[in-house]
Structure formats: structure tokens, C-alpha cells
Amino acid sequence: MFSTAVSTTVLSSEDLEEIDRFHTAWCEENGVDKNDAEALDVASGLIDWYASDTKYRDRAKLDHAPELPESERIKSLLLQIT
Q: How far is 10 from 76, CA to CA, in rounded Å?
């Protein structure tokens, strides 16, 4: 299901490339086509997550795993993929 909330955060092309990189990796790891409904839901969650905290965007580009934001939607999605 897609989010109906409108984010006021402007994402750069670099931000979108990072999101696409995470999304592609998730799809490959889970054997899901990027256009599958589940993959689209994950993509929506990634965009919400990435846009929710400007600190996350900086951390996501580091070599170590970033701290996860406090988001019930992300927690739910992560439980689905683990």
C-alpha cells in the first residue's frame, strides 16, 4: 500500500540513487521484481524513511550501518523482510 502523506523534503538525484541502490539490493536479496506490489511498498517505505530524517541521509552514505529511525512503518517493513 502506498503512503498518502506528502513529504515536504526535497530529495536530490543523489538521494534517489541511494534509495534505488537500497531498493535494488532488497529486491535482489528477496528475489522480487522491482515492479511487484511488495517491492513498490518497500520502495515507498524507503522514500519515507530516507526523507524523514536529514541525519539518516548522511549516515546512509557511510560504510557502516546507520541507526534506524523510530518509525512503526519501517519496523513493520523490516519485520516482513527478515
A: 25
